Amino acid sequence: MAIVAASVPSDEALQPLRYHKDLVDYLRTAEPAVWDWSQSVDMRRSQADEVRAAMLRETYRLEPEGHAAAFAACRTAMERLAIDAPITLYQASDGTMNAGLCYIPGEIHLIFSGPILEKLTPDELLALMGHELAHYRLWGAEDGAFFNASRILDQTVAYGDAAPAHRETARLLSLHTELYADRGAAIAAQAVEPAVSVLVKTMTGLASVDPAAYLRQAEELESSDLKSQGHSHPEAFLRARALSLWWQQAPDLDAWLERRLHGPLSIETLDLLRQKQLTALTRRFLARFLTQPGVGGESVLTQVRSFFPDFQPDEAPIDQADIAADRIDDATRDYLVALMLDCAMADADARDAVLTAAARTAAAFDGLDRFRLALKRDLHWQKGAIDRLVSAARKAA
């Protein structure tokens, strides 16, 4: 059965995802010097010359007379995506079925690998062209801002000492970019099924596939709630499902993408944006903790100001929903528990009251087991003492 949209999306429906926009805003603000350097005309010109030379050295350039179907599909996809630029197509020597875009502003350079042009139907060829051209459209938008972000992250992670947050940011940016390009594939083919067929054919090498069957397969995995582990592309079943939901204009698509691409907030896998998010969450969590009975003493406040020197007692506390069981993982729960233990150790006279409040707070974010473990591991408490503290916390609650 075909996946039917309320209406076939036009090129105007192809917009950068929220992650693209948030990351560009972050890089412009946090790294203005790097941003301005990578936007320079000299950098862009140098890269364009390198791409053209590499294509001539390493590929076979296709001519319209010998590959009319490929050029016709490319032009149709360009029209449907509102792109106007000269076209150059290349065939690489690599035997793996695939395609890619070598980005040069104002020029279309598409490179094909393996027998992909021979194994696709006309609609699938449109979808393939739409996918690669969507990369061109994204990277050319807003004066190249999204290409700029991609290039900054690619160059950053090329160094061996790149921070884990930079690597995670590059990974997530690539995943979101592929979902954007899949939408371009569907718009070019004016249907989801050809775009899914291309996904499956490039994944398997098969000459004939059933996209409807694969979409059913992807839907069966919905209950597993698996987070993508892909390094440059989301898993094919996630891409197919994400495209189907977008085509049907699912109202909860953003929440679905957050769950499937990011998962719960984890201190162990922070990208640049979630570093900022965790910092804000930490501050608001401490603001809430200081409102608990027995916690708001001067020594505890001094401890909190060792993290945030400008912290004020009347700051807005965190909403409990932000640290609900499905919003953070165990590593982040351990982190919140550690913050509370630091506060408890800051004032020997108020320690019992602060630990009681910590136990009560940990229970509210499904962290009581992590709290018990921390008392045993870090403070070397015995089981009886831990049980008495937790019991006292429950009575106080």
UniProtKB/TrEMBL annotation:
Q: Which domain of life is it from?
A: Bacteria
Gene3D superfamilies the UniProt entry points to: Metalloproteases ('zincins'), catalytic domain (3.30.2010.10)
Assigned keywords, A-Z = Hydrolase, Metal-binding, Metalloprotease, Protease, Zinc
Alphabetically, which GO biological process terms does the record hold?
proteolysis
Is RNA-binding one of the keywords UniProt gives this record? no
Gene Ontology molecular-function annotations: metal ion binding; metalloendopeptidase activity
**Which cofactors, if any, are listed as required?**
Zn(2+)
What InterPro entries has UniProt attached to this entry? Answer: Peptidase_M48
Span of domain Peptidase M48: 110-244
Q: How is the cofactor bound?
A: Binds 1 zinc ion per subunit.
- Tell me one Pfam family matched here: Peptidase_M48
Is Zinc there in the keyword field? yes
**Of which family is this protein a member?**
Belongs to the peptidase M48 family.
Q: What is this protein called?
A: Zn-dependent protease with chaperone function
Record the organism.
Sphingomonas jatrophae
